[in-house]
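Board work, copied verbatim: Sulfatase N-terminal domain-containing protein
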Amino acid sequence: DKVYDYVNEDFIWSYFSKAGYRTGAIFDDYHVTAFHYQKKGWDKPPVDYYHRVVVLAKNNDKLMKATSSNCFGDMPEITFNHDFWIQMASTFNNSKTRPYFGFSFSVHLTHDSHNMASAGDHLYHRFLQELKDKNIINNTVFIFFSDHGQRFGKTREMYNGKIESSTPYMFLVFPPWFHRKYPQIIKVLKINQERLTTNRDIYETLRDLVNFQATTQLGDINKRGISLFQEIPRERMCEHAQISVEYCVCNELTNSNVSSSMSLALALTVQDKLKALIYTVLDKCSVLKFKKVMRVMEEQPKTTRVNQTPVNSTRYHITLMTTPGDAVYEA
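↓ predict structure ↓
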């Protein structure tokens, strides 16, 4: 039942605020974002420029509801949000005494269908072009990211879909002069493109930007988050970064030739686990049974783990369908 005000100091915009930055945040939906889904957000605005009132008014307006959720009247919603940042950046871009930090997250366009992403291509291109044309990008670090890949639909049921759902994209854009002035930093960033990184590393990178030091070193493998200005150790695995097993894509998965009896045993184990999760309402539900095993894959781990001891166990990933309802589960 608590709101986020009591932990707002830990959010990245607070670090920038304490360093004298103006801060802003905008979301296109205040029901499904990480800060509001089944949560209450904040009592007080977490940043200096907060767009919540405008977005709520739009989402509650009867005429607006009659149009696509991807539009703000006759304007694409993404463009409306982009214009907010262009105005903020244009206003404060030449202020050397108080720079700015902005956080934006859009869900409407692609949340329900990744195929809709192409509808925003020209809108994002225009936004990026405007950042360049107005010279905003010359003193701005721009991070373009997502929180996860597609999590449902036919694509998700395939192996490629499983990998894609756990590998969100992350692009960092630095001003051209930054590349010339700090070639060692750019070199490390390029190295880290081929290493295991997480959003926690981005958090640490942003903290480094607040008090930027043009130094590079090997990151501490035992830390959950490592700034991307430090070289991520080649040996880093999911265990080091505290990535849960179900989201780890470090180890290769191959189709397993397990026996039918083993496949059945795995399926029944998952079925029993599901029943345990809903045991308090079992008397109100139909009897849950597995309908078919869709896929069993075997994890091919690296030769060592965190403690550098050989792995001598096998982990299976099973996808099955239950009845009634034809629900698909992974375990």
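The chain has a mean pLDDT of 85.
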